[in-house]
Amino acid sequence: MMRFFNWFYFFVSIGALLAVTVLVYVQDNIGRRWGYGICAVGILAGLGVFLCGTKMYRFKKLVGSPLTQVAAVTTAAWSKRTLPLPSDPSKLYDVDDAAAAGEDLKGKQKLPHSKECRFLDHAAIIDRAEAASPAEASKWTLCTRTDVEEVKQVVRMLPIWATTIMFWTIHAQMTTFAVEQASLMDRGIGMAAAAIVERHRLTSSTHGVTLTVFLLMPQFLLVGAGEAFTYMGQLDFFLRECPKGMKTMSTGLFLSTCALGFFFSTVTVTIVHKVTGHGPRGSGGWLADNLDQGRLDYFYWLLAVMSAINIIFFTMAARGYMYKEKRLADAGIELADEEAVIVGH
């Protein structure tokens, strides 16, 4: 699977490289019509390649929305929050009971019970009204223990998910303020590094010296290397760790960290501009329209401190996380068997 991700990221990077070099050159020196035309031809060519491989693709039948399952488990658990949890987890409603009642499980595999997030176990309690025919109960009032465990697995991943958002906040600066930095430098041919470079650039600009744009290379190299590790790591982590019945949620979790990272960047910039806008450097504050009149280096140092704090929380979350492979192995379930079911072998 990692081999697929490596090639996937390789071609994504090649596309990005061509977009910011060849395509930009064509648009600036030949015309934007040619640039848009190349994009249109590229999209059509990619669509053609995609359609040519249709017969070789393996399709997995959808078993419902994972978001609906999360909502159903949460709603059922809340509605039964006053009911006492049984001391024996085997008394909770599970896929065995559903199968015995003739319910279509859609290939759902039984998962072992875990002690985390016990509140969600309320969703699998059979109350008196459901005791006669639990299989006929609504999924919004009664869920199987396996459904609950799948939602628990998503909850376990949330700390890792949350602590990866900060990286994409940092990444957003490379397409905004770093470009503005470069526009004020000689273009002839992590955040701590960016702050040091910006401080050096700002000092030099006050003396009428224009620095070479190559001084920005360290911050771009660090962010670029970080993107490769983060992009690949997130894709692999979420796809492997998402429950079998909620695999469609894996890429959504990854892409949501990218989106939230850029949104958080906007919020951070707005707050910093609001707080520092009336500073001694003028109404522009740290993020003035003219970088020579602002203190972008202070903003970069702020992001460096936020990243350092974030890495502490990430390390704590990573050390406390138990991978699905180990958790299932402790319960006597082979992950290879589960993956075989996932891909339809």
TrEMBL record:
- Keywords assigned by UniProt? Membrane, Transmembrane, Transmembrane helix
What membrane topology does the annotation report for this chain?
Answer: Multi-pass membrane protein
Q: In the UniProt record, which is one GO cellular component term?
A: membrane
Q: Does the keyword NADP apply?
A: no
Q: Where are the transmembrane segments?
A: 7-27, 33-52, 158-179, 209-232, 253-273, 298-318
Pfam families given in the database record: PTR2 (PF00854)
Principal place of residence: membrane
Q: Which InterPro entries match?
A: MFS_trans_sf (IPR036259), POT_fam (IPR000109)
- Which GO terms label this protein's molecular function in UniProt? transmembrane transporter activity
Localization, UniProt: Membrane
Q: Does the keyword Transmembrane apply?
A: yes
- Sequence similarity: Belongs to the major facilitator superfamily. Proton-dependent oligopeptide transporter (POT/PTR) (TC 2.A.17) family.
Protein name per the record: Uncharacterized protein
State the organism of origin: Triticum turgidum subsp. durum (Durum wheat)
